[in-house]
Write a structure and sequence with these properties.
The chain has about 170 residues and is α+β, with helices and mostly antiparallel strands. It is about 60% helix and about 15% strand. Helix 5 crosses helix 6.
Length: about 170
C-alpha cells in the first residue's frame, strides 16, 4: 500500500516537473476565499486563453521545484496555492489573474516563474501590464503600415498633380 502511494507521488512530481519545464510562465496565486462560482469563472477565462490552472499539494510542488533547481519558488508555497501555467503567451496568466484579482480581493498573486526567472508579486503585476502577443504584433504591423500609406498618398498626390498640369 505504501509503495503505491509513493509511486503515485513520484508520478505527480514528474508531471509537475514536466509542466514547469514546458510552461513559458507559471504564476502562483492564493485562492482561498473565492466562491465556487468565482473559481469557475476564473478557470473559464484562463482556459479560453490557453492557460492551464491546477492545484497541487505544496509538498509535491516543492519537491519538483527543488529537483529542477527552482528553490526560489519554494518560499512562496504556503497555504492553499493554485498554479496557472501559460504555454504560448508568457503574459497571459499574469494578465488574466491580475485583472481577476482587481475585482476579487480573495485572489492574491504570490510569485511566478517566467522563462526561467523567478518573479515576485510586483514583477508579476508589471508583466500583467504588457499587452498580449497579438496586440503587440498588430501595433508593429500598424507602425509598418503608416509610412507605406504616407508614401502611397505622396505618390498619388504627385500623380494627381502631374495629371492636372497636363490637363491645363
Amino acid at each position: 500500500m505504501a509503495s503505491n502511494v509513493r509511486k503515485l507521488k513520484e508520478t505527480k512530481v514528474s508531471e509537475i516537473k514536466e509542466k514547469l519545464q514546458k510552461a513559458q510562465a507559471v504564476i502562483m496565486v492564493k485562492y482561498q476565499g473565492l466562491t465556487v462560482g468565482e473559481d469557475t469563472d476564473l478557470r473559464k477565462q484562463l482556459r479560453e486563453s490557453g492557460v492551464e490552472y491546477k492545484v497541487y499539494k505544496n509538498s509535491l510542488v516543492t519537491r519538483a521545484a527543488n529537483e529542477l533547481g527552482l528553490e526560489g519558488l519554494v518560499e512562496f508555497l504556503e497555504g492553499p496555492i493554485a498554479i496557472a501555467l501559460g504555454y504560448e503567451d508568457p503574459t497571459a496568466p499574469a494578465r488574466i489573474l491580475n485583472d481577476f484579482a482587481k475585482t476579487h480581493k480573495a485572489l492574491e498573486l504570490k510569485a511566478g516563474l517566467v522563462q526561467g526567472e523567478i518573479y515576485n508579486e510586483a514583477k508579476i503585476k508589471e508583466l500583467a501590464s504588457v499587452p498580449s502577443k497579438e496586440i503587440l504584433i498588430a501595433k508593429l504591423l500598424g507602425s509598418f503600415q503608416a509610412p507605406i500609406s504616407k508614401f502611397a498618398y505622396l505618390i498619388s498626390a504627385i500623380k494627381d498633380s502631374k495629371e492636372s498640369e497636363t490637363n491645363e
